[in-house]
Every structure is written in C-alpha cells, then in structure tokens.
Known about the structure:
With 523 residues, the chain is mainly α. Among the domains are: 155-203; 214-432, 2-Layer Sandwich (Ribosomal Protein S8, Chain: A, domain 1), CATH 3.30.1370; 439-514, Cation efflux protein, cytoplasmic domain (Alpha-Beta Plaits, 2-Layer Sandwich), CATH 3.30.70. Helix content is 71%, strand content 7%. The protein has 14 helices and eight strands. The protein has helices spanning 2-149, 155-203, 223-229, 234-243, 263-279, 284-313, 320-328, 339-357, 361-369, 385-395, 400-407, 418-432, 438-456, 484-501, and strands at 214-218, 246-248, 255-259, 333-334, 337-338, 461-467, 472-477, 509-514. A three-stranded antiparallel sheet has the order 1-3-2, covered by helices on one side. Mean pLDDT is 78; it is low at 205-211.
Amino acid sequence: MGEVKYLLDFVVALVAAAAVFAYWLANRKRIAAETIGAAEQQAARLLRDAEREVEARRKEALLEAKEQAHELVVEAERLSRERRQEAQEAEQSLAERARALADRLAVAERRETELAARHREVEARARDIEGERARLEQLTGEQQRVLQRVAGMTADEARETLIRQMESDARRDAANLVKRLEAEARETAAARARAIVTQAIQRSAAEHAIETTVSVVDLPSDDMKGRIIGREGRNIRALELATGVELIVDDTPGAIILSSFDPFRREVARQAIEKLIADGRIHPARIEEVVEKVKAELEEQTRRDGEAAGFELGLYDLNPEILKLMGRLRYRTSYGQNVLNHSTEVAFLAGIMAKEVGLDAHVATRAAFLHDIGKAIDRDLGGSHLELGIEFLRKHGENEAVVMAMAAHHMDIDWPSLEAMLVQAADAISAARPGARRDILESYVKRLEKLEGIADSFGGVSKAFALQAGREIRIMVESEKVTDEEAVWLSKDIARRIENELEYPGQIKVTVIRETRAVDYAR
C-alpha cells in the first residue's frame, strides 16, 4: 500500500511536472511569437522611416538644385543687365561726344561766319574812312581856296569865325549827348524806381491791425455789472457823461462793451472802469475824479508815444506840442488803419527812398511823419486835416520845406520838391499794403479767391495757389489727364481768361506744373 501510494504521488508529480512544462513551453512559444511580431513591426517602422528620410533628402537635394539653378539664372540676368547697361552707357557717351563735336563744329562754323562778317564790316569801314578822308581833303582844299579868296580878313575876324564854327560843333555834339542821355534815363528810370520802392517796402516790417469802434472790458464777476449801472442807472449815466462813450451792458457774461467812434474816448473809459473796479468805490463823484485822472495820465502817455515815434525815426528836435499831437494819432484810425503807425511807416518808407535817390532824407522823413497831423485836431476844429495841419506846423515854427512837402501829399498843390513826391508815394504804399485798410483788404482777398477759382475751373487741374500778392499763380495738373503739350496751351487759356475777367495792376504770371512719378518696389 505504501508503494502504491508512493507510485501514485510520483505519477501525480510527473503529470504535474509535464503540465508545468507544457505550460512553460506554450508560454515560451507565445512570448517568442510576440517578440517576433514586435520585431517585424519595428523592422517595418524602421523601413518606413528610412523611406521617408530618403524621400526628404531627395526633396532637399532637388530644392537645393533648383535654388542653385535659380541663383545661376539670376546671376546670368544680372551680368546680362550690367553688360546691357555698360553698352547703353557707352552708346550714350558716344552720342554725347558726337553731339559735343557737332556743337563745337557748329560754334566753329558760326565763329567763322562771324569773323567773315566782321572782316567784311572792317573792309566796309575802311572804305568809308577812305571816302571820308578824301572828302575831308576836298573840304580842306575848298576851305583853303575860300581863305585864299578872303585873304584880306584880319586875324581877329578869322579867330571869331573859327570860334563860331567850334561853338556850333560843340552845341551839336552836346545836343546829341543830351538826347542820348535822355533816352537812357527813360529806359532805366522805371526799373530803378521799381527797385527803390521794392527795397523800401521790404525793409519796412510794419504790422497792421484793423481797428474797430468798440472795446470790451472784462469784469471779475457778473455782480459788478449792477454796481457799474448803479441805483436807477446813475453810475452808468455818470460814466457816459464824463467819457462820451456808450456803455452796453447786455447778457454777455463777464464783460461790458464800450462803443464810440473816438478810440481816445474809448481808451479813457476803459482805463477808468478798470480803475473803478480795482478801487471798489463806484459812485458819480468818484467816477468824475477817476475819469479826469485817467485823461491826464493818457495825455501824458500820448506825449510819450509821440516822443517814442519821433525818436525811432531819428527826429529829435520836434516841438513838444507837435509830438504831443502826434501821440494822439495813436487813438485815431483811417479806414481801420491806426494813423500813428501809418505815419511812422510812411516816414520810414520816404526816408529809405530819399536816401536811395540822393535826396534830403531828413526833410522827406519829417514831412512824411507829420503829413496826417491835422487828423488829431480836425474833430475839434473846423476845416480839413490838411489845412489844420499846415496851420499848426507853421504856428509852431516847422521848416517851410517840410510844411510844403507835407501839404502836397494829397496832390492838392503842385509838387514843391522831389521830397514831396516821395512823401505822396510812401503814403500810397502804406495805404495800399494788403491788410492795412479794411476795404482794400476785402477786395484783395476776393481777387485772390477769384484768381484761384478761374484756375480750378479748368479740367485736369488738381491745385492752384495764388502767390506774391496775386502777381503769380502756380497750377498743379494731373499728369494722367494733361500732357506736356496740353500744359502749354492750358497756361495760355488761363492767362487769357484772367485778362478778360479780372482787373489787376501790372501783370500776373501763370505757371503750370506737370509732375510725372514712376514708383516701384524692391522685394
């Protein structure tokens, strides 16, 4: 029994060992199969990667070959362009040399023709001289024969006859010389006059501000309006009565308006109101006191203004009363132009022009500075400003040459001197300067606008600019619509239309500009 049991255990163990071996063998086969499959997959993957790498390298090689081929083509084209450019430059150089040689040949031929003409002229002059010499010899012989016939003439009579003949010849030569000088003077006078006037205007840097008939006084607060008006309006009535200025107190915030035709009165009222506001005491008695004080201060200020203007012009010996009256012109306007500034400018212009033409610059400057002095008193006295100014200057001992030059600035009398003509010219220049006077400024601006409007009305015009105070207009045209030949005719058409539609002094230069632009981009 024990052996049987032992045998059964052995058989069981053997079967179990066979089963384990069979399991191990099956597992090894499975692992081997999996390993072989994985190896095959890895081999396939490596093969695909190798194929992709080969394809990529083949494409890179192909791309590199194409780039090299493109570079070779570009280099060949560049060399070809350089060769063509060199050939064109050589051809252009040869053409230029040919033109230069042709020009030199033409110049040589022209000089040869001129030399031949001069040679013929010299020969003709030589023949004329020979003819004149023969004629003179003939005349001399005739003279000698005449003298021989009148041999009975005394020495004094012969001397007198010779002197009369020489005097006649001298008069004839002098008349010819005067005639030639007059012709030259007429030719150069206009250009010289324009140059002198232009230089005087350029050296005069005058500033113009159009004056109005109202002034504005700023208030620290709207409550101050009530204090200025006063109880039942007594303060405002006192101000208007003391200054002669109309006070306009309306809804304008922080301000009141002073209205008067007299700038001096407006200035007195403005300063008086500012002093009253600063002082705080506003009542009729205080108003009259402050107005009188401001008037005295302003009179002193006008005297200083007159002295400053005279000092600026180098007029140091003017009578103090004349300077005081000139200072009042600071508060006088003519067509919106400040008369003191106008007088200073006229004096400056007249002085410059007098120096340029060699006249008495001091007389011209002095007369020009004082030419409108009567406007400071024509509102207080009867008569024109010219008559009042002449009387005032003579009363205060002004030089008669200055008074007469000043008296002719409106051409009411014949020109007493050349300095008087310069005073009148300087007065006209100052009054006609663009911006100096209101009516002239308006017509000037309208003329420029119409000038540009005429140019803009033509087809193909992109922009038009009026320059040099309307003496030139520059017109930009579109190069796609207007050719070079059409631009020439366009300038003529615009010039004809300006002549027909505008009134202007002198001439207007019409310049048509056509610009062609070629644009490209380097990539």
